[in-house]
Amino acid sequence: MRRLLAAVLVLFACPALVLAQAPEIDRIDPPFWWVNMERPTVELMVYGNNLADTRVQLGEHPGVTLDRVTEVENPNYLFVRLRIGDAATPGTVPLRFRHDAGTLTRSFELRPRRTGTYAQGFSSEDVIYLLMPDRFANGAPENDSIPGFLEGVDRSDPDARHGGDFAGVREHLDYIDDLGMTALWMTPIFENDMPPEYGAYHGYAATDMYRVDPRFGSNDTFRRLVESAHERDLKVIMDMIHNHIGDRHWWMDDPPTGDWVHDFDTHGTTNYEGAAVIDPYASTHDREQLTDAWFVPSMPDLNQDNELLATYLIQNTLWWIESTGIDGIRMDTYFYADKDYMTRWTSAVLEEYPDFNIVGESWVPTVPHEAYWQDDFQAHPDDYDSDLPSVTDFPLSFAIQDAFAPDGGGVYDLYRTLAQDHVYPAPNKLVTFLDNHDLTRFFSVVDEDAFKLAYAFLMTTRGIPQVYYATELMQPMLDVEGDGAKRPDMPGGWPGDARSVFTEEGRTTRENRAHDFVTTLTTWREDADVIHHGGLTHYIPQDDTYVYFRHDADDTVMVVLNDAEESRTLALDRFEERIQAHTAGRDVISGATVALGDSLTVPARTPMVLELRE
After folding, report:
1. pLDDT value of position 7
2. Statement: residue 13 has pLDDT above 80
């Protein structure tokens, strides 16, 4: 009795001790969910103070039951799994967290499923326009710097934030649409509240996976951007990262478990060698260093072997699709994460949204290593199947640069790379590109003639073409060091810019030539079903000239890429099997009609895209 009385007196004298033990709830992820999902459960990550001492009870709501409550080693977390039955209706579900000091009640919202057109996927019928929101246009200068955030705007620094945002992108959707683009991919939009010296404008160091970075806008302004894109028949592809987060992510101050991220002291930084996953002779050390080590020291590597984390990430993806209406996902650093988890994630997304599409970033130089990651690849040394519909075609991108660079190997590189397409389960589902936000800008490698040859190839070969913003202007690299050189601002996207490349009068003569060329080919491609789905027959290049045909039962397109320094006259009998009875072709680029007799003369360093006619 004396010991109990002493304890009571201590608590009475130090009420702060009582308060310190009282539970608090700071956040619940996901913040809401939906009825009628294919996935019958949702697992809530509840975070606060001293939650392990609470008893969770569910208030009455039709069709909703409490499936389980999981405690972890950190008492500030509870994982509460709800089962959402077929009879569940939209509304709020009372969640009660009972404690000796009282009861906390939170209302968890269940919403009706989204209606209308969304989650429609992307395919070889599309041309994807890739942009970085921070570098495209600043439509809302008032959100350039947010109180309490670690980094503001400094346009004088190519590696700092520049202030581009969703409002700026939305203002220029007509510009993107008029180019002939049919899908919009933006680099990640998650909150990246990282220090200025890191430069997280690119979005790949998430500090909150349920929140848009407020310097781009809000979750609601992103939803409105998606709606505006859909009004123009532009699809929206979201960039995601499940391999890593930023080291300022709120988890890092108080992680749920000791194995939530891989230990940096144990694994260090990754070896960046994608072949290690596939290599039949690879050591366990090399494989683990690829997948378990950190991408860079400021990006903790997530441990997808943790079941609670894996569920969190899968639900997060479904939440973004259903809450915003996006149409596809580009998954960053695909093979750096646990590959069995990535299959599970991909399958979960496609089971919920069968028309959806996902492209995984697989930055490898060889075709077999790229093909490994596509669904139904038949030569796995380990019987692995990714379920991943699309991969980024880095081998073809490197071949394009080699083909047209001044010291490159020539157009034979294109032929040789495509000749390996038998390795891919579905080569027409690959995403093809000249460059992107991580690569040297293509026009810094080639001249204008080579640019036109390469762009004509990109628009007429198999696959799903992706065009990096400002490619339509033949934008070269900036004369600075670092990644900022690849990511210039679009002139005219900021108030007070001296000129605007979004208008004809604001572009230089060279930029207008490029813009017109890109627009002509890309808008033509929109309705060219033979390019979207037709067969491809190519011929071994001769004399620096590459000829191939796209063909189906109704249409034939003949493409000639003359990369020689002089004109070439081609004897057409070599191509008789595909020309067949056609006697002429309309050149999509020039608009001229070209006769197909015994021969065809193609000017030096010129592409021809001929719609054949009888």
Report:
1. 38
2. no
Contacts of 156 (CB under 8 A, 6+ apart): none
Look up the pTM and report it: 0.95
Can you read off the two tokens belonging to residue 191? 């909150």
Q: Is 361 a catalytic residue?
A: yes
Annotated catalytic, 174? Answer: no
Hey, what are 248's tokens? 């300022």
Helix, strand, coil abundance in the chain, percent, nearest 5: 30, 25, 45
Of the candidates 386, 380, 298, 302, the one whose C-alpha atom is nearest the C-alpha of residue 336 is 302
Residue 113 has pLDDT above 60, yes or no: yes
In the set 126, 165, 292, 361, the catalytic residue is 361
What the block records as the tokens of 579 is: 């020309």
Are the C-beta atoms of residues 579 and 612 closer than 8 Å to each other?
Answer: yes
Q: What local confidence, expressed as pLDDT, does residue 408 receive?
A: 83
Q: Which of helix, strand or coil describes residue 329?
A: strand
Query: Which amino acid type is present at position 216?
Result: F
Per-residue pLDDT tens for 529-543?
Answer: 999 999 999 999 999
- Residue 4: CB atoms within 10 A of its CB come to 8
> What are the distances in angstroms from CA 168 to CA 49, 163, 471, 473, 484?
40, 9, 19, 19, 20
Give the pLDDT of residue 313.
98
Q: Cα separation of 219 and 566, whole Å?
A: 55
> What is the per-residue DSSP string for 523-547?
HHHHT-HHHHH-EEEEEEEETTEEE
Which of 292, 301, 332, 435 is the catalytic position? Answer: 332
φ/ψ region of 591 (left if φ > 0, alpha if ψ in -120 to 50, else beta) reads left
